[in-house]
Design brief:
Blueprint (H helix, E strand, L loop, with lengths): L33 E3 L5 E4 L7 E3 L10 E8 L8 E5 L13 H7 L3 E5 L2 H4 L8 H4 L13 E4 L2 E4 L13 H10 L10 E8 L4 E8 L2 E11 L5 E5 L4 E6 L9 H11 L14 H9 L1
Antiparallel strand pairs: 1-2, 2-13, 3-12, 4-9, 4-13, 5-6, 5-12, 7-8, 9-10, 10-11
Helix pairs in contact: 5-6
Length: about 280
């Protein structure tokens, strides 16, 4: 798979232009209670609280973010989504483990974490942990359109969760942007990627609603294929993949951004003299 890169460094380090990676999909190998839709982009646990393991269909490229949005929650269970990377080829597994932790991790070459903001956030060197634990408002898209993680730059456009359009969505959207909601709240967006190091290893980073949690694992084998792991566990019932544009933004995306910046809130888009299809695209994407 080609690494996500382009001349201006969208989603990748500066360097010669390379082809954009194909859209992310879930692997055909998954837990017994998982059902993947026909597009390969939505995974739902249909019963119980376990056997919810999913993998990326292909190994990730360096700097490629495997991003999911939590679509459905299920009351009555204790625990949430788990996320990480594995050097194990899902197709080579004799049987898909019941849990990512500890079952898959015990097979080795796997780095998976339960998603909780305080446990996943890793303070940067030279910064006290207390400072790292205080959420701050991400810069506006016009001011800083990229999330910078080590040598990679990832477009912020689709990294942050958004509420369903409704009476209070303008308030809820701000909570997603501030990243003060529980990280596994419905419609939160969570992602994982790896960044190679000069010594041949790689750091794994987890991203929660557009905020990099820091290197949650180090020393991963950068030369080996690394697959994303998503454990649709317990109270997390269904997730969908969110696609990112690593190359130059499409004309459709640029038009949407201009329209969104021209209104106080996305619900005001209904009052614009635009085709319904374009209004829906601007409100829901």
């Amino acid at each position: 798979m080609a690494a996500p890169s382009d001349p201006v460094g969208l989603g990748a380090p500066r360097g010669p232009a390379l082809s954009e990676p194909p859209p992310t999909r879930f692997h055909r190998v998954h837990g017994a209670n998982i059902r993947v839709d026909s597009t390969g982009t939505r995974a739902t646990r249909v019963e119980s609280f376990a056997h919810g393991l999913c993998f990326s269909s292909e190994p990730l490229a360096p700097g490629q973010l495997f991003l999911v949005e939590i679509e459905e929650k299920e009351l009555g269970w204790c625990g949430h989504l788990r996320l990480g990377l594995t050097a194990l080829d899902p197709a080579s597994l004799a049987a898909v483990p019941e849990f990512s932790l500890p079952d898959l991790a015990s097979l080795g070459h796997t780095w998976v974490f339960a998603i909780t903001r305080h446990h996943n956030r890793v303070p940067q060197e030279g910064h006290p942990e207390t400072e790292a634990a205080v959420p701050s408002r991400p810069p506006a898209l016009m001011v800083e359109p990229y999330l910078c993680i080590e040598q990679f730059r990832i477009p912020r456009d689709r990294l942050v969760g958004r509420s369903r359009p409704g009476l209070y969505s303008h308030l809820l959207d701000q909570l997603y942007e501030l990243n003060v909601l529980p990280p596994t709240a419905r419609r939160s967006r969570l992602g994982v990627l790896f960044c190679p190091r000069p010594d041949g290893t790689a750091d794994m980073h987890i991203v929660i609603n557009g905020e990099d949690m820091g290197p949650s694992a180090k020393g991963l084998p950068a030369a080996q294929p690394l697959y994303a792991v998503v454990d649709v566990f317990a109270s997390t019932k269904s997730v969908r993949l969110v696609q990112l544009e690593y190359g130059l933004p499409s004309l459709q995306t640029l038009c949407r951004l201009v329209i969104q910046r021209s209104v106080v809130h996305r619900l005001a888009i209904d009052g614009l003299h635009l085709p319904k299809g374009l209004k829906d695209f601007c409100k829901y994407e």
